[in-house]
Amino acid sequence: MVRPSHSLANNQIAVVCPTYNAGKLWKDWIEALLKQSIKPNKILIIDSGSNDGTVELTKQYELDVYVLSNEKFNHGGTRNLGVKMIQEENDLVVFLTQDAILATEDSLFNIVEPFADQNVAAVCGRQLPNKNAKPLEEHARLFNYPNTSKIKSKEDILVLGIKTAFMSNSFAAYRLAHFNSAGGFPEDTIFAEDMSIAAKLILEGYKIAYCAQACVHHSHSYTMLEEFKRYFDVGVFYSREKWVKNNFGTAGGEGVKFVISEIKFLIKSSKFLLIPSALVRTFLKLLAFKLGRIEKHLPNGVKYRISMNKNYWR
Fold first, then answer.
1. Fewer CB within a 10 Å sphere, N or C end of the chain?
2. Is the pTM of this model over 0.85?
3. Taking Cα atoms as reference points, which of 184, 226, 178, 225 lies closest to residue 206?
């Protein structure tokens, strides 16, 4: 069994995961976590009204589960609740989503290793495409989650821009002392609560790590409509969190790089017939993003219909 390094030996580690109808993958998720080479001091599941047996299965494995109503779920607020429930006994918190399956028995160990550097406030793990991922899903994960680790700081903003604060709570870890100093996740953001706090931590002078050795299997097979809704929400985030753009810029340059990389990937994979679909998706994502940026001019009913996070508009 792999043991934590000496610098981490006295740290208490908690795992927090929000759930809602976790489905067939939930058993795999639990078993992958329980097989980890280091054992969390606390595992907390926060369920928002599942009716598919998620809560019952969680209890069968004797994991702690806290149930709240679906209407009360909030990307930032629900995770802040989790932190409040575990922080007295722990130094580090690892967030996972219900569809992110730990890929190796050392995934948890690896994601907390960068905290050996006392200036590292948060760590983002690597997301690998699911085994049955379609080509566009596969490329998205390979582009956004490379196989090289990196530690980023305020000095990297001029080169990396918004990528400096890249973070995903599908698999991320935070040092609770720094998490609390930054005020936790924003309670009222539609999206990207993870990137929001990462940006604050960077601006406060802390470091953010990307650990390519800490892996989960996690990818989405979004329809064009689902992608449209997701990117509308991204646009809303940038519209309402202008400080992020002011300090880091937008992802415009990265978007161009992504499109070029995607086309090259499809050509190399001999998936030529998918190129028109990929280009249509790119156009729709750009349109949705721009609509999100001007959301204050749209009726609330329209925003509710074209948003992925509908609770935000209620």
1. C
2. yes
3. 178
